[in-house]
């Protein structure tokens, strides 16, 4: 097995190629399908072979019918999935959705840039902005899942002179008006 593309988390990223109009494991990277499946499991962060393969297949299907030249884009999406470093099935599902939403968002922005029809441009931009909000919600959901309900409290040590002054807790603003 050759060393597959490595995401920023040192997890081997599954790589695919397009052969006769269909997506399949990159034959130059894997000696057999089992190596690809192991790579899929590592990228999704789950131990279920079936779920890992299905998630990879679902992500690939978001690219539509395989076209020549699509493999680098699909492999980049797979690297993005691995880069999310999912640690369990929930994170793997959400990470897959996030990559799919991002892919479609970028496709819509590209379509908006390439159309001369004002109504189509507006529709593409509106749909892209909806997906951008979905992505932001997904990112916040991932943050909450990983944080597991922990809240961060910041404690600062403040010294006050005890000359009869009073402490104010909160934001203080000064008015430029007299007496204010």
Dominant shape: flat
The count of DSSP E runs of length 2 or more, i.e. the number of strands, is: 2
Q: Work out the radius of gyration.
A: 24 Å
Count of all domains? 1
Strand order of the largest sheet: 1-2
Q: Overall mean pLDDT score? A: 87
- What gap, in angstroms, lies between the N and C termini? 74 Å
Give the fraction of residues assigned to helices. 40-55%
User: What string, H for helix and E for strand, traces the elements in order?
Assistant: EEHHHHH
Strand content is: under 5%
Helix and strand composition category? mainly alpha
Runs in which pLDDT lies below 50 for 5 or more consecutive residues are 1-7
Largest sheet: 2 strands, antiparallel
The helix count comes to 5
Explain what the structure shows:
There is one protein chain. This protein is mainly alpha-helical. It has one domain (16-147). It contains five helices and two strands, in the order E-E-H-H-H-H-H. The protein has helices at 33-44, 49-61, 71-83, 89-113, 118-147; strands spanning 16-19, 22-25. A two-stranded antiparallel ribbon has the order 1-2. A hairpin with a 2-residue loop joins strand 1 and strand 2 (22-25). The longest helix is centred in the C-terminal third of the chain and has 30 residues, at 118-147. It is flat and about 85 Å long. It starts with 15 loop residues before the first strand and ends in a 33-residue tail after the last helix. Residues 1-7 have low confidence and may be disordered.
């Amino acid at each position: 097995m050759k060393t597959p593309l490595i995401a920023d988390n040192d997890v081997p990223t599954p790589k695919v190629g397009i052969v006769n109009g269909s997506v399949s494991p990159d034959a130059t990277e894997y000696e057999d399908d089992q190596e690809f499946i192991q790579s899929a499991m590592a990228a999704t962060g789950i131990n279920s072979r079936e779920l890992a393969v299905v998630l990879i297949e679902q992500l690939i299907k978001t690219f539509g019918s395989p076209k020549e030249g699509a493999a680098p884009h699909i492999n980049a999406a797979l690297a993005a999935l691995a880069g999310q470093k999912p640690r369990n099935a929930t994170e793997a599902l959400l990470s897959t959705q996030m990559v799919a939403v991002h892919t479609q968002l970028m496709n819509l922005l590209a379509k908006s840039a390439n159309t001369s029809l004002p109504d189509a441009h507006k529709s593409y931009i509106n749909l892209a902005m909806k997906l951008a909000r979905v992505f932001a919600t997904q990112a916040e959901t991932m943050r909450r899942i990983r944080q597991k309900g922990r809240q961060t409290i910041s404690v600062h040590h403040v010294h006050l002179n005890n000359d009869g002054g009073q402490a104010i807790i909160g934001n203080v603003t000064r008015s430029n008006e007299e007496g204010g």
